[in-house]
Amino acid sequence: MVQRWRDVARASGLASPDGSARPTIFAEMTALAQRTGAANLGQGFPDSDGPAWVRDIAAAAIRNGVNQYPPGRGTPELRHAIAAHQLRHYGIELDPEREVLVTAGATEAIAAAVLALAGPGDEVVTLEPFYDSHAAAIAMAGATHVTVPLTPDPDGFRLDTAALDTAVSPRTSIIIVNTPHNPTGTVLSSRELQLIAAAAQRANALIITDEVYEHLTFDGVAHTPIATLPGMAARTLTVSSAGKTFSLTGWKIGWITGPAELIEAVTAIKQFLTYSGGAPFQPAIARALIDGDADIAALRDSLSTRRDLLAAGLRNAGFDLIMPAGTYFVCADARPFLSDGDDGAAFARALPERVGVAAVPVSAFCREASTASQALAPWVRFTFVKDERTLRTAVERLRGLERTRGAVQR
Ligand SMILES: *Cc1c(COP(=O)(O)O)cnc(C)c1O
């Protein structure tokens, strides 16, 4: 019997290679942080809620009877707001009736799109490291996962362009892009996006692009949707969500946009995953997309300050790091603190006891024994989407981290 859950569990780190169940590294680190009272910079969700005026709209909707199934494609109001958002920010024109689908977060959008458009015998290419649900969706579809490393170099974690050319072939049905990128904080450059676009065109592959951090970029770095590149709108499904943009991750209001016939295919799957959801949240997010620019700017500024605070603290403590241009995360090289034979995973498991801080190893976002997972073995990811007090506590504690004897002094 095919028990696809085993492949899914393995792809997302929920099971060991022998198929036995285990908690994800995220659950393990959070449990450890709670047990030891560590500052939890492991799991990446905000510790303060999104704008009160947006929450008030949802609360009023609940009181005023917006509590039954919304339309399967999402309320017309929200679909129009999503289309208007894409036009205003990126010049992307969408028909809200046929080219926009509201989903239960970006996670459902990605799963439904991969299930709709790939199957056994197809290859789906992602960057590596990758967000865990991308790998799980590919496994659920029974497709084959092929990866292209993002490699640490002085310019940041950059796309391995030679690997891209090898990875994308006529067997490729989908390339999943993620920019701004979790876990590295990379915002793909226009050259990198052009290379991915060219590879997709050569292979006649579709693109699914996960842009949930589209508004959370720093230092004036701009996010470019790959759908805006010449010729790419016709083969691209763009995914985003209100969770990260408005610090409302528990609402799970996401969306997917693109050509009508592809949205039709995704809708066919989505209607039997959740059908619809989040009725009272949809009018609130519709307003937030129209009137929430000041809130987005405030979040971006505050995240940028918190990024600087954490990055400076990590550098002071002796870490080498790559400054992220976007997202909630900074990745640091833990080599000065590793004992012989240890890697980032061992370091992350020991860190709560060692100094009272929790982080996650970057290898948790990689496939076992892959080129990327070897190159990134000593790296750990810290989140800065926590209040400044928690960050200051973490930074103070990290100063007490002792270098391993024999570790290279930088
Ligand atoms: C958080 C996150 C998601 C999940 O988005 P939801 O809207 O909560 O489903 C998807 N992709 C990336 C890269 C994320 O970091």
Protein model, in words:
The chain has 410 residues and is α/β, with parallel strands linked by helices. Helices cover 41% and strands 16% of the residues. It has an eight-stranded mixed beta sheet with strand order 2-9-8-7-6-3-4-5, sandwiched between helices. It has a four-stranded antiparallel beta sheet with strand order 10-11-14-13. Strands 1-12 form a two-stranded parallel ribbon. Strand 6, helix 8 and strand 7 form a beta-alpha-beta unit. Helix 1 packs antiparallel against helix 6, helix 3 packs antiparallel against helix 11 and helix 5 runs parallel beside helix 6. The protein is globular. Bound molecules: pyridoxal-5'-phosphate. Pyridoxal-5'-phosphate (PLP) binds next to helix 5 and helix 9.
The major pleated sheet works out as:
8 strands, mixed
Strand content: 15-25%
Topology order in helix (H) and strand (E) letters: HHEHHEHEHEEHEHEEHEHHHEEHEEHEH
Which kinds of small molecule does this entry bind, naming each only once?
Answer: pyridoxal-5'-phosphate
- Write down how many β-strands occur, each being a DSSP E stretch of 2 or more residues: 14
Give the low-pLDDT segments.
none
Q: What is the helix tally?
A: 15
Strand order of the largest sheet: 2-9-8-7-6-3-4-5
- Structural class by secondary-structure content: alpha/beta
What share of the residues lie within helices? 40-55%
Radius of gyration: 21 Å
pLDDT averaged residue by residue: 95
Shape: globular
Terminal CA distance reads 54 Å
